[in-house]
Specification:
The complex is a heterodimer. In chain A, strand 5 and strand 6 form a beta hairpin. By secondary structure, chain A is mainly beta. In chain A, strands 2, 4, 5, 6, 9, 10 and 11 form a seven-stranded mixed sheet that branches. Chain A is built from no helices and eleven strands. The model of chain A has no long low-confidence stretch (mean pLDDT about 95). Chain A starts with a strand and ends with a strand. In chain B, strand 6 and strand 7 form a beta hairpin. Classes of the chains: A mainly beta, B mainly beta. Chains A and B meet through strand 4, strand 5 and strand 10 of A and strand 4, strand 5, strand 9 and strand 10 of B.
Chain lengths: ~110, ~110
Protein backbone atom coordinates (compact mmCIF):
# COMPACT_ATOMS: atom_id res chain seq x y z
CA UNK A 1 0.00 0.00 0.00
CA UNK A 2 1.24 3.47 -0.89
CA UNK A 3 0.77 6.46 1.39
CA UNK A 4 -1.52 8.13 -1.14
CA UNK A 5 -5.14 8.23 -0.01
CA UNK A 6 -8.15 9.26 -2.04
CA UNK A 7 -11.71 10.02 -1.03
CA UNK A 8 -14.39 9.06 -1.57
CA UNK A 9 -13.80 5.57 -2.97
CA UNK A 10 -17.06 5.53 -4.92
CA UNK A 11 -19.73 8.03 -5.79
CA UNK A 12 -22.66 8.41 -8.13
CA UNK A 13 -23.61 11.74 -9.65
CA UNK A 14 -26.23 12.95 -12.07
CA UNK A 15 -25.36 14.45 -15.43
CA UNK A 16 -24.86 18.22 -15.10
CA UNK A 17 -23.81 18.10 -11.46
CA UNK A 18 -20.43 19.04 -10.04
CA UNK A 19 -18.06 16.76 -8.13
CA UNK A 20 -14.97 17.21 -5.95
CA UNK A 21 -12.47 14.42 -5.42
CA UNK A 22 -9.71 14.56 -2.82
CA UNK A 23 -6.18 13.23 -2.55
CA UNK A 24 -3.60 13.21 0.23
CA UNK A 25 -0.08 12.79 -1.05
CA UNK A 26 2.57 10.48 0.36
CA UNK A 27 4.77 11.91 3.08
CA UNK A 28 7.76 13.73 1.55
CA UNK A 29 6.06 14.26 -1.80
CA UNK A 30 5.19 17.75 -3.00
CA UNK A 31 3.63 17.09 -6.41
CA UNK A 32 0.25 15.62 -7.25
CA UNK A 33 -0.94 14.39 -10.64
CA UNK A 34 -4.45 13.35 -11.59
CA UNK A 35 -5.37 10.69 -14.13
CA UNK A 36 -8.65 9.46 -15.58
CA UNK A 37 -8.98 5.76 -16.31
CA UNK A 38 -12.02 4.71 -18.32
CA UNK A 39 -13.11 1.09 -18.07
CA UNK A 40 -10.76 -1.20 -19.97
CA UNK A 41 -8.30 1.57 -20.81
CA UNK A 42 -5.05 2.94 -19.45
CA UNK A 43 -4.92 6.07 -17.28
CA UNK A 44 -4.89 9.42 -19.08
CA UNK A 45 -3.10 12.45 -17.63
CA UNK A 46 -5.44 15.24 -16.58
CA UNK A 47 -3.03 17.68 -14.89
CA UNK A 48 -0.31 18.06 -12.29
CA UNK A 49 0.00 20.45 -9.35
CA UNK A 50 3.20 21.72 -7.79
CA UNK A 51 3.57 24.65 -5.42
CA UNK A 52 -0.19 25.07 -5.51
CA UNK A 53 -0.16 25.82 -9.25
CA UNK A 54 -1.01 23.78 -12.31
CA UNK A 55 2.20 22.39 -13.77
CA UNK A 56 1.10 20.76 -17.00
CA UNK A 57 -2.24 19.67 -18.37
CA UNK A 58 -3.46 16.91 -20.64
CA UNK A 59 -6.19 17.06 -23.23
CA UNK A 60 -9.09 17.76 -20.88
CA UNK A 61 -11.58 20.66 -21.05
CA UNK A 62 -11.57 23.56 -18.57
CA UNK A 63 -14.48 22.07 -16.63
CA UNK A 64 -11.80 19.84 -15.10
CA UNK A 65 -9.99 21.96 -12.55
CA UNK A 66 -7.87 21.40 -9.51
CA UNK A 67 -6.33 22.80 -6.39
CA UNK A 68 -3.30 22.02 -4.30
CA UNK A 69 -3.09 23.03 -0.66
CA UNK A 70 -0.03 24.04 1.43
CA UNK A 71 0.11 20.51 2.89
CA UNK A 72 0.41 19.22 -0.72
CA UNK A 73 -2.99 17.56 -0.71
CA UNK A 74 -5.11 18.18 -3.78
CA UNK A 75 -8.64 18.33 -5.12
CA UNK A 76 -10.00 17.55 -8.56
CA UNK A 77 -13.19 19.36 -9.49
CA UNK A 78 -15.35 18.47 -12.45
CA UNK A 79 -18.22 20.73 -13.44
CA UNK A 80 -21.20 19.98 -15.70
CA UNK A 81 -20.69 16.24 -15.47
CA UNK A 82 -21.20 14.20 -18.62
CA UNK A 83 -21.88 10.48 -18.93
CA UNK A 84 -18.40 9.99 -20.43
CA UNK A 85 -16.86 11.32 -17.22
CA UNK A 86 -17.68 7.96 -15.62
CA UNK A 87 -14.27 6.50 -14.81
CA UNK A 88 -11.73 5.69 -12.13
CA UNK A 89 -9.93 8.87 -11.10
CA UNK A 90 -6.41 8.28 -9.89
CA UNK A 91 -4.15 10.55 -7.94
CA UNK A 92 -0.38 10.07 -8.00
CA UNK A 93 2.12 11.81 -5.76
CA UNK A 94 5.80 12.36 -6.43
CA UNK A 95 8.68 14.65 -5.58
CA UNK A 96 9.25 17.54 -7.95
CA UNK A 97 12.67 17.69 -9.53
CA UNK A 98 12.92 13.97 -10.05
CA UNK A 99 11.70 12.29 -13.19
CA UNK A 100 8.19 11.13 -12.49
CA UNK A 101 9.16 7.47 -12.56
CA UNK A 102 8.62 7.22 -8.82
CA UNK A 103 5.00 8.33 -8.80
CA UNK A 104 2.84 6.43 -6.34
CA UNK A 105 -0.84 6.01 -7.03
CA UNK A 106 -3.78 5.99 -4.69
CA UNK A 107 -6.55 3.41 -4.92
CA UNK A 108 -8.70 5.75 -6.98
CA UNK A 109 -12.20 7.17 -6.83
CA UNK A 110 -14.75 5.43 -9.01
CA UNK A 111 -17.18 8.01 -10.38
CA UNK A 112 -20.40 6.97 -12.04
CA UNK A 113 -22.43 9.61 -13.86
CA UNK A 114 -26.04 8.69 -14.56
CA UNK B 1 -2.65 6.73 -33.19
CA UNK B 2 -1.93 6.39 -29.49
CA UNK B 3 1.61 7.15 -28.35
CA UNK B 4 1.81 3.85 -26.44
CA UNK B 5 0.06 0.76 -27.76
CA UNK B 6 -0.56 -2.44 -25.84
CA UNK B 7 -2.45 -5.61 -26.69
CA UNK B 8 -5.48 -5.76 -24.35
CA UNK B 9 -5.45 -9.55 -24.03
CA UNK B 10 -6.65 -11.34 -22.03
CA UNK B 11 -3.54 -13.49 -21.81
CA UNK B 12 -4.16 -16.79 -20.08
CA UNK B 13 -1.25 -18.98 -18.96
CA UNK B 14 -0.85 -21.98 -16.65
CA UNK B 15 0.86 -21.51 -13.32
CA UNK B 16 4.65 -21.67 -13.65
CA UNK B 17 4.72 -20.48 -17.25
CA UNK B 18 6.56 -17.41 -18.50
CA UNK B 19 4.33 -14.42 -19.14
CA UNK B 20 5.48 -12.21 -22.00
CA UNK B 21 4.01 -8.71 -22.32
CA UNK B 22 4.77 -6.12 -24.96
CA UNK B 23 4.17 -2.50 -25.84
CA UNK B 24 5.16 -0.29 -28.72
CA UNK B 25 5.52 3.47 -28.61
CA UNK B 26 5.81 6.19 -31.19
CA UNK B 27 7.33 9.20 -29.40
CA UNK B 28 11.13 9.23 -29.77
CA UNK B 29 11.38 11.67 -26.85
CA UNK B 30 10.36 8.99 -24.35
CA UNK B 31 13.36 8.08 -22.20
CA UNK B 32 11.91 6.21 -19.21
CA UNK B 33 9.74 3.15 -19.49
CA UNK B 34 7.66 1.76 -16.65
CA UNK B 35 5.58 -1.28 -15.93
CA UNK B 36 2.68 -1.10 -13.51
CA UNK B 37 0.48 -3.87 -12.13
CA UNK B 38 -3.14 -3.08 -11.40
CA UNK B 39 -5.43 -5.40 -9.53
CA UNK B 40 -9.17 -5.05 -9.97
CA UNK B 41 -10.56 -1.94 -8.27
CA UNK B 42 -7.08 -0.81 -7.16
CA UNK B 43 -4.63 1.85 -8.27
CA UNK B 44 -1.59 0.97 -10.42
CA UNK B 45 1.46 -0.30 -8.53
CA UNK B 46 4.92 0.39 -9.98
CA UNK B 47 6.80 -2.84 -10.72
CA UNK B 48 9.93 -1.44 -12.27
CA UNK B 49 11.27 1.14 -14.66
CA UNK B 50 14.08 1.26 -17.22
CA UNK B 51 16.00 4.22 -18.55
CA UNK B 52 16.64 4.20 -22.31
CA UNK B 53 17.49 0.87 -23.96
CA UNK B 54 18.54 -2.18 -22.03
CA UNK B 55 17.40 -4.84 -19.62
CA UNK B 56 16.53 -4.71 -15.96
CA UNK B 57 15.79 -7.64 -13.69
CA UNK B 58 13.99 -7.67 -10.35
CA UNK B 59 13.24 -11.08 -8.93
CA UNK B 60 10.89 -12.90 -11.29
CA UNK B 61 10.42 -9.80 -13.45
CA UNK B 62 12.58 -8.69 -16.39
CA UNK B 63 11.98 -5.51 -18.36
CA UNK B 64 13.51 -4.87 -21.77
CA UNK B 65 13.55 -1.75 -23.89
CA UNK B 66 14.68 -1.57 -27.51
CA UNK B 67 14.63 2.09 -28.51
CA UNK B 68 15.66 1.33 -32.08
CA UNK B 69 12.39 -0.52 -32.64
CA UNK B 70 10.41 1.39 -29.99
CA UNK B 71 9.53 -1.86 -28.29
CA UNK B 72 9.01 -2.48 -24.55
CA UNK B 73 8.74 -5.91 -22.97
CA UNK B 74 8.06 -7.41 -19.56
CA UNK B 75 8.68 -11.05 -18.73
CA UNK B 76 7.34 -12.76 -15.63
CA UNK B 77 9.03 -16.05 -14.78
CA UNK B 78 7.43 -18.82 -12.73
CA UNK B 79 4.06 -17.10 -12.89
CA UNK B 80 1.72 -17.44 -9.93
CA UNK B 81 -2.07 -17.04 -9.65
CA UNK B 82 -1.35 -13.90 -7.62
CA UNK B 83 0.19 -12.41 -10.79
CA UNK B 84 -3.29 -12.32 -12.33
CA UNK B 85 -3.88 -8.61 -12.92
CA UNK B 86 -3.80 -5.95 -15.60
CA UNK B 87 -0.30 -4.86 -16.59
CA UNK B 88 0.20 -1.32 -17.83
CA UNK B 89 3.24 -0.03 -19.65
CA UNK B 90 3.98 3.68 -19.45
CA UNK B 91 6.56 6.07 -20.83
CA UNK B 92 7.80 9.53 -19.93
CA UNK B 93 10.16 12.09 -21.41
CA UNK B 94 13.43 12.91 -19.68
CA UNK B 95 12.14 16.21 -18.30
CA UNK B 96 8.52 15.25 -18.42
CA UNK B 97 5.87 15.21 -15.76
CA UNK B 98 3.24 13.24 -17.62
CA UNK B 99 3.09 9.46 -17.76
CA UNK B 100 1.71 8.15 -21.04
CA UNK B 101 0.11 4.74 -20.56
CA UNK B 102 -0.77 1.90 -22.84
CA UNK B 103 -4.25 0.46 -22.59
CA UNK B 104 -3.19 -2.43 -20.36
CA UNK B 105 -3.02 -6.20 -20.85
CA UNK B 106 -5.15 -8.43 -18.66
CA UNK B 107 -3.26 -11.52 -17.49
CA UNK B 108 -4.82 -14.62 -15.97
CA UNK B 109 -2.57 -17.26 -14.40
CA UNK B 110 -4.51 -20.47 -13.92
CA UNK B 111 -3.58 -22.88 -11.07
Amino acid sequence: ETGVTQSPTHLIKTRGQQVTLRCSSQSGHNTVSWYQQALGQGPQFIFQYYREEENGRGNFPPRFSGLQFPNYSSELNVNALELDDSALYLCASSFHGTVNTEAFFGQGTRLTVV
Amino acid sequence: QKEVEQDPGPLSVPEGAIVSLNCTYSNSAFQYFMWYRQYSRKGPELLMYTYSSGNKEDGRFTAQVDKSSKYISLFIRDSQPSDSATYLCASIKAAGNKLTFGGGTRVLVKP
